[in-house]
Amino acid sequence: MKKLFIVFLTFFLFISQTQAFTNYFTFWLRLHDNEYELVPKIENKFNTKVPLVSIIYDDFSEWEAFKLAKTFKTLWNDRVYHISINPFGYNLKDLIDNPKHMWWERKYRALFRLIKKYDVKVIFRSLHEMNWWWYSRSSDPYRFPIFWKMMWNWSREEWLDRSNILFDFSINSQDLPAVEWSVPSQTTPVMTCNQTLKKTTWCLTFEDYYPWDEYVDILWVTIYNWWTGARKEDWAKWRDPFTVINEPWYRTFDRMKKLWKPIFIDEAWSTSIKVDGPYDELKLIDLYKQSHYREDSTTATGTKVKNDWINKLPELYTDPQVMWWAYFNADVTYWLNDRRQVGELDWMAIDPNKNFAYPAVLDILNSSKNLTFPTFYFDLNKKILNSKKWISEDQMLKIHEFISQIMVYKEGNLIVDWDYKGTYKYAKYQYYLEKRLKSDPILCEYINKKFPQIECSDAKKVENYEIKKKVFDYIINKVLTSPIKLSNWGICQQIEDYKVLLDIKSAKLNAGSNKYKIYEDILEYLNKYEKNFLELR
Questions:
Q1: Which end of the chain is more exposed for a tag (fewer CB within 10 A), N or C?
Q2: Widest CA span of the chain, in angstroms?
Q3: Please, are residues 171 and 221 in contact by the beta-carbon 8 Å criterion?
Q4: Measured distance CA(237)–CA(235) in Å, rounded
Q5: How far is CA 527 from each of CA 304, 364, 400, 492, 531, rounded to the nearest angstrom?
Q6: What residues have CB less than 8 Å from 309, skipping those under 6 apart?
Q7: Whole-angstrom Cα distance, residue 475 to residue 479?
Q8: Beta strand pairing status for 52-57 and 26-30?
Q9: pLDDT (tens digit, 9 = 90+) per residue, 276-289?
Q10: Strand partners, 350
């Protein structure tokens, strides 16, 4: 009977909730020139949180290692780092055959030691876009998995595992390998390949480079968008995000899904200058200045076409395999100081130094669907796993059914989904629930009374605890005794009704009185509850 109950409960949770959970995501930014100082500036100026930052190195010099260590110390470990290190200018044959691997083993190990030292979570990318001709180390499916496994083994020799590093197999959305026997470079002749051509020509697609499941944690893809006339090349044309990632000739997205790994978009950007007709550099610059600079102090917001394009990106998250997305937030023209790059104009979407932000970027960063703890995708380390006895599957399902009546636990919603295959999922469910509940000891205390396994801080230390507890109990009782099961908005309505009552009462009080301050404290508590535990945006 107990097993039958668990099966029924799991089935109910899956049917009623899974479809609503598929559009959770994590959104982050690639930092212009790897400047970590931009993160606190963005967070403070635009009142948001950047949960993950992307840093790209074409080398990893001692100075860059020093700067990365400073980045870790400044931004610390409550976020995830996406770090790319690529042996720019080297081919895979030399990297493998050279006894010192052209000094790159030392550089990779230096990164891995930094990750271990600062106990940070890193998504590691190297040798990206191998299915293109562009880089000297690309278009080599024989040696690619060999060097990939060497990097993976070096990370394990430096005592890293899935609790602190995930390996990112990052492809381009188009299979464009160098022609046979040519040396890959930016001027190398290329050929286009798809699944039909492959049957007759044996041309290369991204699947040929795949180093097998054991060595790959995540699939990544890069997507770019230009406006017709924004570049000299004829192929430049405006395309929405899903068209880029799954254009009919390649069907890249459909093929990625067959590998059954989480899919992340690690580079996405779009130009914004709408130019119909031939390429005109001076016209591009003039239009850019018109749309991106302000004489007054108001925030510049760019163009509507690009804002609409960014707004379409969350549509990709309706597929449950697509989980993360990074905007390539860099200006390679250096604010028009490098005229050679005008064809790449306006990748930036947010810049606190120039008081500039696309509304769509801020909306996505602040979305209630944006996961609060991006470290959730990593395994729990051995120290945490051995720290106590964790809940079982039976307990997890019962806890989730109970708390779902009064709050939204996004990470938990994903874990109870049958599609989630994470290691030690029940421990991870409890760990992140307790982490989330730290911001509200009163809510945690309420859950702990029914499920003592959930550990909490002392709620009685909360300022005005007794009064807040009475307010909390009143609202929760209204929710649980409702003749219908209330949604997030229904719970919010109960809170809003109480806030109206507080407003009426506080309006009759002296603003400096102690009772007035208590009412203000309760209002702040209720606002935080709505923000932290309900999905309202």
A1: N
A2: 84
A3: yes
A4: 6
A5: 32, 20, 23, 10, 6
A6: 225, 240, 241, 270
A7: 6
A8: parallel
A9: 777 777 877 787 77
A10: 357
Are 299 and 1 in contact, with CB atoms under 8 Å apart?
no
Structure tokens at 371: 């996961």
Q: Which helix (H) or strand (E) holds 514?
A: helix 514-533
CB-CB contact of 188 with 182 (8 Å): yes
Q: Phi/psi of residue 81, each to 5°?
A: -115, 130
Read off the tokens for 501.
């009552």
d(CA 157, CA 150): 10
Classify each residue of 7-44 as buried b or exposed e, where b means 16 or more C-beta atoms within 10 Å of its C-beta.
Answer: eebbeebeeeebeebbbbbbbbbbbbebebebbeebee
Smallest CA-to-CA distance from 364 within 433, 436, 315 is with 315
36 vs 39: CA distance, rounded Å: 6
Q: Are strands 350-351 and 356-357 parallel, antiparallel or unpaired?
A: antiparallel
Q: What are the pLDDT digits (tens) for 35-61? A: 889 999 999 999 998 999 999 998 899
Residue with tokens 């010192």: 100
Beta strands in 63-110 (DSSP E): 80-85
**C-alpha distances in Å from residue 357, one per residue of 268, 293, 327, 329:** 16, 11, 13, 11
Amino acid code (one letter) for 269: W
First to last CA, the chain: 40
Residue 380 CA to residue 121 CA, distance in Å, equals 11
Instruction: Give the model's confidence band at 418: pLDDT under 50 very low, under 70 low, under 90 confident, else very high.
Output: low
Helices and strands: H and E segment counts in the chain: 20, 10
| SS (HEC) of 126-172 | CCCCCCECCCCCCCCCCCHHHHHHHHHHHHHHCCCCCCCEEEEEEEE
Give the whole-angstrom CA distance, residue 11 versus residue 13: 6
Helix, strand, coil % in the chain, rounded to nearest 5: 50, 10, 40
- Residue matched to tokens 């899904």: 257
Q: What pTM did the predictor assign?
A: 0.88
Q: Which amino acid is at 516?
A: Y
pLDDT in tens, 225-264: 887 777 777 777 788 888 889 989 999 999 999 998 888 8
CB atoms within 10 A of CB 400: 20
Three-state DSSP class for residue 377:
helix
CA distance 454 to 390: 9
The amino acid at residue 470 is: K
Picking from 214, 164, 109, the residue whose alpha carbon sits closest to that of residue 382 is: 164
Provide the token pair at 49.
């949180």
Token digits of residue 271: 């130009």
